[in-house]
Amino acid sequence: MRTGSETVTATRHDDVGDAMAAAMLRESVLAARRAARNAADVLRPEGFALDEWLVLDALGAGDGLTMSQLREAVLVDKATLGRRVDDLLTKALVYREVDGLDRRVIRVYLSSRGRDVLSRLTARLAQGQ
């Protein structure tokens, strides 16, 4: 059984641990926001949104993804993903095909132009310019 002072010490220790975890989470979130803002600043002059690059990058890592798989990879809602894929289709960077096994499933692929653009954009992002 804990004494009153042991309970206070345990509570303080828990409070310190919680405060440290919250501080680490805050710093991680802020770092992610800064990185996203910097990436968007690099992509904007090229005529691309960050979500478009994320879609291209996901397809570069695993071509022929379903919209559900892309949504999981890019972490955007269904409507936003649909608009981004449509924008990339308009730019001829991706194309869609009906799945060979299940005609209800649509797969998205990088075009050869899309691979070139992905390579260029990724290099620009790596340079930070």
Task: Tell me what you see in this structure.
There is one protein chain. This protein is mainly alpha-helical and 129 residues long. The protein has one domain: Arc Repressor Mutant, subunit A, CATH 1.10.10. Helices cover 69% and strands 9% of the residues. The chain has a three-stranded antiparallel sheet with strand order 1-3-2. α2 crosses α5. It starts with a helix and ends with a helix. The mean pLDDT is 90.
Gist?
This protein is mainly alpha-helical and 129 residues long.
Strand arrangement, largest sheet? Answer: 1-3-2
Gyration radius, rounded = 22 Å
Q: What gross morphology would you assign?
A: globular
Q: What is the helix tally?
A: 5
What is the CATH superfamily label?
Winged helix-like DNA-binding domain superfamily/Winged helix DNA-binding domain
CATH class: Mainly Alpha
Cα end-to-end separation = 61 Å
Structural class: mainly alpha
> Main β-sheet, in a few words?
3 strands, antiparallel
What's the architecture, going by CATH? Answer: Orthogonal Bundle
Low-confidence stretches: none
H and E string:
HHEHHEEH
Tell me the number of strands: 3
Give the % helix: 55-70%
Q: Could you tell me the CATH topology label.
A: Arc Repressor Mutant, subunit A
Oligomeric form of this entry? single chain
* Mean pLDDT across all amino acids: 90
Question: What is the beta-strand fraction?
Answer: 5-15%
Tally of individual domains: 1
